[in-house]
Amino acid sequence: MINIVPIVIEGITVTGVEVKLPKTTLLTINTPKGYIMCGALDIGLLNERLSDRQIIAGRAVGVKTLQELLDAPLESVTYEAEKLGITPGISGRDALQKMF
Question: What is the Cα–Cα distance from 24 to 10, expressed in whole angstroms?
């Protein structure tokens, strides 16, 4: 099952997506510029093999809900996210605000 949920942050609506899979759930919250995601996101792949795409993204581990993804500190971020001031340790919510 796939759930798409609007999430309002500072008056701006972003898109939360939950994909229910056997034994896990993939979580992502997207803005027009970039996204944050659960531990399934491979930051190394985005930074190395897909660097030409200049993807703005962050990864939080151990999250099970969209709310947890918003509140959790990011464990890793892409090089492009760092250019916007998004660093490991920043909350998902704060990272998304920098992506507006």
Answer: 30
